[in-house]
Design a protein that fits this description.
The protein is mainly beta. The protein has helices spanning 7-12, 53-66, 82-87, 108-111; strands at 24-26, 41-44, 71-74, 97-98, 115-117, 125-127, 135-138, 144-147, 154-157, 173-177, 180-182, 186-187, 192-198, 205-209, 215-219, 223-227, 236-245, 248-259, 263-267, 271-272, 277-285, 292-298, 301-302, 327-328, 334-340, 345-356, 361-372, 398-402, 409-415, 421-425, 431-435, 440-445, 452-459, 467-473.
């Protein structure tokens, strides 16, 4: 220990020539598991003490006889002390001295939250009373392991069968590495999530708790799998794990899970000038591979459904008609609508509500705009996923897409006028495949795409708006 000589050691090794002129250099790279720097830490720079096999055997016999069958595991050394061994060496670190001058140095391991205090029966680390200034690791209820003395040995011993200078009659404290929950921070509606606990001590038990709307599919001491409801509110949830040592509560861990069916953010100018046009875009993210649409509202008035709706701009009030619109078909998952103004400005609230195929709002974005005049809808383009099952072929072509679901290849057969461009997008609007073809059949390789929903856009070179087909990729 720090400047402590265990007299028993030296009495049994009285024929050994000992040197007390060891030199040490400070080290600054020793960290706790939570990355706090451990101060007052040193490494030996001079020659370590050396013992012959017969001397080590004599020491082992003395410890066995005088400390109730204590076992010498390593020869005495000046390289490290009990704190260095218990808190660093046993966790894979180098042999160093921790707290050479300050008897509270090792406290950082629990004051920074890396370790938490627990009942003895599940502890892995032991801190003897500060007056005794000693640390050990707990192997079982009957056996500890610690480094003894300034130049002492590493010893396996009973909890209270140690040199008296460690003052075993005073209270000890017991610690474990603080457990933590790992798992996804977000989840899609209708999916399953699995959370796991790391650093759970042996002998501990765990009670998992999930929101009432979730169902627990399986659970154990170290993990839980929950089914996320299909249509939850667009909000965050807490899943917790209460850890017990017998009947004693140790700690409760919590994990925040955000269930989001998608995200939408409105972008565009803060104002619309008189008789000017501004475009406002609903940028759509993370839709969990589900079909989505955007419902626009201006000061609470919904905008009428329509693929291309044109309203002339006037300098007096024009009724805001109902129209549902959404993302452009340029592959940039955007929804556009335009407003126009006259001279006196008025503030309006522009709202884009993201809806899934069941019509449930899963995300909303708000934007205040100042209109110099009266707003009038000019045009709107529909969503990547709007009415995918009822797309009408406007050019008179016969288009056949097969197989659907597709595993390795997707075939697109076109009869009639030639198509200029075929594109395959994922649910986030990322362009994955593209081909140009005339009348006939084109084949897209989908063998390396993950299972899920995709969207095929077929441009005929005549109409600005493509035909859109929903494609399922499914690998057996």
């Amino acid at each position: 220990m720090k400047r402590i000589i265990i007299m028993t050691v030296f009495l049994t090794l009285c024929d050994i020539e000992m040197s007390f002129t060891q030199t040490y250099s400070p080290v600054t790279n020793v960290k706790t598991p939570n990355n706090s720097t451990v101060q007052d830490t040193y490494t030996l720079t001079s020659t370590d003490v050396s013992y012959s096999p017969s001397q080590i055997a004599a020491l082992a016999a003395d410890y066995y006889a005088n400390y109730n069958e204590a076992v010498v595991l390593e020869a005495p050394s000046f390289k490290y002390n009990c704190h260095g061994y218990a808190w660093l060496v046993t966790e894979g670190g180098n042999k160093v001295w921790i707290g050479r001058y300050d008897i509270t140095t090792e406290d950082i391991y629990w004051t920074d939250g890396s370790y938490i205090e627990v009942p003895e029966n599940i502890a892995t680390k032991v801190s003897y009373h500060q007056d005794g200034n000693h640390s050990a690791i707990r192997l079982s209820s009957n056996w500890y392991q610690s480094k003894w003395g300034w130049a002492g040995a590493l010893v396996k011993h009973h909890p209270d069968r140690v040199p008296s200078i460690y003052q075993t009659w005073k209270a000890k404290k017991y610690y474990i590495r603080k457990p933590s929950i790992t798992g996804p921070a977000t989840a899609c509606p209708g999916s399953s999530v699995t959370l796991t606990i790391s650093n759970l001590p042996a002998g501990a038990t765990v009670n998992w708790s999930a929101p009432n709307t979730f169902s627990v599919e399986s659970s154990s001491n170290t993990s839980v799998t929950c089914a996320v409801p299909s249509l939850p509110p667009n909000a965050g949830y807490i899943i917790s794990a209460s850890i017990f040592a017998g009947s004693s509560h140790v700690t409760t861990l919590t994990h925040s899970l955000n269930v989001r069916g998608g995200k939408v953010v409105v972008s565009g100018s803060d104002y619309v000038g008189y008789l000017k046009t501004e475009t406002y875009t609903a940028n759509i993210f993370s839709t969990c591979n589900q079909p989505v649409t955007v419902e626009w509202k201006l000061d609470g008035s919904p905008i009428e459904t329509g693929r291309n709706i044109i309203i002339k701009s006037v300098a007096k009030p024009v009724p805001v008609k109902n129209m549902e619109g959404i993302a452009s078909d340029t592959g940039e998952r955007q929804t556009s609508r335009q407003v126009q103004g006259t001279t006196n400005y008025t503030e309006y609230m522009l709202v884009a509500a993201l809806k899934n195929s069941s019509g449930t709002v899963i995300a909303t974005s708000y934007r205040n705009i100042a209109v110099y005049g009266y707003p009038s809808i000019i045009s709107i383009e529909r969503s990547l996923h709007d009415n995918l099952d009822n797309v009408k072929n406007s050019s008179g072509k016969d288009i056949n897409v097969y197989p659907n679901p597709a595993g390795d290849y997707l075939n697109i057969s076109i009869n009639g006028k030639s198509a200029s461009d075929i594109r395959l997008y994922d649910a986030y609007g990322t362009l994955l495949r593209q081909a140009k073809t005339g009348s006939g059949t084109v084949q897209l390789n989908v063998s390396n795409l993950p299972n899920g929903l995709y969207y095929l856009h077929i441009y005929d070179g005549i109409n600005k708006t493509p035909e859109v087909r929903q494609i399922m990729v499914k690998h057996d």
